[in-house]
Amino acid sequence: MDVISTKYEKWLLPSIILITLAVFSPVIWNDFIAFDDDIFVYANANIASGVSLEVIRWAFTNGYEANWVPLSILSHAFDVQLFGLNPAGHHTVNLLLHVANSCLLFLFLKRATRLPWQSAAVAFLFALHPLHVESVAWVAERRDVLSTFFMMLTLYWYTRFTENKSIRFYCLSLVLFVLGLLSKPMLVSLPILLLLLDWWPLNRISCPDRSDVIRLIAEKIPFYLLSLCSSIITYRVQQAVGELPQGYTFASRLGKSCIAYITYVFKMFWPADLAILYPFSIYPPSNIKVALTAALLIGITAAVFLFNNRYPFLITGWLWYLVTLLPVIGLIQIGQHSVADRYTYIPLIGLFVVIVWGLSRLLETWRYRDECLGCIAVCVVAGMSWLTVVQLQYWKNSETLFKHTLEVTEGNWVIQNNLGLEYLNQGRVDEAIQHFNLSIQAKPSYSLAYLNLGAAYLTTKEYTKAVDAFKWSLQFDRNSPKARGGLVFAYLKQGKRDLALAEYKILEESGVPSAMSLSEIMEKAASH
Q: What CATH number should be reported for the domain whose range is 411-527?
């Protein structure tokens, strides 16, 4: 059997490439999604013009949408330079990066472990898992696939460095790490990951020798410093735009983080009802649920360390999962989502390692081990491929994605609003108004839904309702120039010029730039 395995090893890498391309190829024909794709690509004036020195300067000197990801932003600009605003080209780049990541994961594990079949199994799980559809099919999530590309290269060349202590390979891994951080700061945990790899599979820590551990920690000081710089920049960017959380206690965030860790594990085994956004529940998690998930995490971690001598891969795999999820697990809550499928793109690799190496070890003395593992592999690859193809269909366009998300989630005010906006852009105003109202019903303080509702009422010439909607929007976001401008426009259409002028003066005094001057608003109102 070993002879047969060796004979077919040369087909592992081509198989990863061809199967991944075959399964994910439908994504090429998908449209842009009206959720961040507009912000980062087709409606972004800086990016839509292609690559230039000014765009490069803007990418590196601005924290855009509470993110400092200059390399990812520039990759979008390069796409526009090459493909214009044809979504097929942008999707193709995402797909090719995902294929490259799967191949690099295989090559890295193969070199580090000298076990090609187990390495290929992990690569297939990574390449085809339905949870990874979001990172590939969502153009705006170029950050995931691009940062992972540089991360995998970093791990590969770090492994080469450990083999012969070449300073050239060490410096190359550092440069690649910098490129990864510039793509997405989630990679700040990579220095800890390198220490885990020193334990297994690189076996650089043969015994609990304190001096040996200190030496390996000191070896990674440049990596720590780079992570620290990236963390500080990210914090300052989010602080500047007011994205840092307010009103959450550390205890509540810790409890939600424990639940999120277990939620992602469950989703890995049962990837059903996947959505682009999972809103927070209006009810806080019960103390019992928090206690049970915390106890489960502690129990698994304790078991991993208890069996570390016999199964050293458990520590690396489980802690890979815990550590790489840490920056986005919710201890610092950003955004309006409780969990996100895209956050599993890197962390699940650790669990895949545990599963693959664990099964291989558990069945190592069984006579039909290879046949059994082969059947399991075929069934898993076929099952994941089918689930991924189905999931890709939901990402065909904004309408199909948003409708599916509303079917599998409850109280999703963000997606109700986004679907309403999509209908409004299509001229389906009545359906748009219905979804804006459903968004407000789910979250009465959601100013954006009131703003869009006001815009819809302007379309139907129901100016009194539009005024009410804009006023409610300003109740929850007093600095919204669009809401204030909409109110000016609605007052002008009602013939209330004094009220319109008063609102416009407030807009000017606030220091928030308006999209149009008062004369332009009046001219537009007159011709509307």
A: 1.25.40.10
